[in-house]
Design a protein that fits this description.
By secondary structure, the chain is α/β, with parallel strands linked by helices. The protein contains 9 helices and 7 strands, in the order βαβαβαβαβααβαααβ. Helix 3 runs parallel beside helix 4. The structure holds NADPH dihydro-nicotinamide-adenine-dinucleotide phosphate.
Amino acid sequence: MELDKQVCIVTGGSRGIGRAVCLTLAAKGATVIACARTEPKLTELAAEAKERELAGTIVPRTLDVTDRAAIDDLVNDVAEKYERLDVLVNNAGITKDGLLASMEDDDFDTVIDANLRAVFRLSRAASKHMMRARKGRIINISSVAGVMGNPGQCNYSASKAGVIGFTKSVAKELARRNITCNAVAPGFIETDMTDVLPEKVREGVKPLIPLRRFGTCDEIASVVAFLAGDGASYINGQVLVVDGGLYM
Ligand code: NDP
């Protein structure tokens, strides 16, 4: 198995893209620490991995990525318990959409906290262990909104563009320790996050996507698994846009 014995932390593992990432990494043999705020969904996910007899395991851990102390505790616990930390997938993310003129400070700050500051804190904590091991992969989930912008999402787009700048700097900084850092920028993917979009918006977007459909969580998870695997050992500081051709 490609990811046999590897230990991975995935944030936002309870639903959507993160859930698919956890299952895909576990199917490749990894021990996956699935983190989110909602414990029951994580426990169900761990049970599903067991039921499906995946080669690896999913270990549920509650974590609010905006809680700085909890991040350090979790990352240090994992590294101590398993004596390694191979992959960090920064996937947890939120939206609080609104037009610039009427956006509250709080809506801007909350999104930056969860989508960008958390990526910094988790990567900082994980990198200490990876540097010691001289091996690691950091994979950040950005968004096409961070590449091309999106009206009504200035907070979200800023956070996701920030993730891209962060990814490139970390990629340059940690490469000499054999740690790579890459980003995946999904387009419109079928999850709770896009379910809340009005039908008019969903249907209005589809003609702009050359493949004429939203993507699936598995179509993002397979790219994350590729970046975590042997085949991506020479890919560093890149943004893989996975959007059916929306941005090109
Ligand atoms: P969902 O809303 O379906 O799931 C979000 C996940 O993040 C959940 O597991 C949620 O768990 C977790 N989460 C949210 N806030 C926190 C927090 N403070 N601490 C810990 N976990 C948290 O989102 P998607 O699966 O759609 O999105 C996943 C990532 O992909 C996000 O970063 C998103 O921005 C990005 N993305 C998604 C796109 C899409 O079209 N769906 C397009 C481009 C990028 P819980 O609530 O239990 O904490």
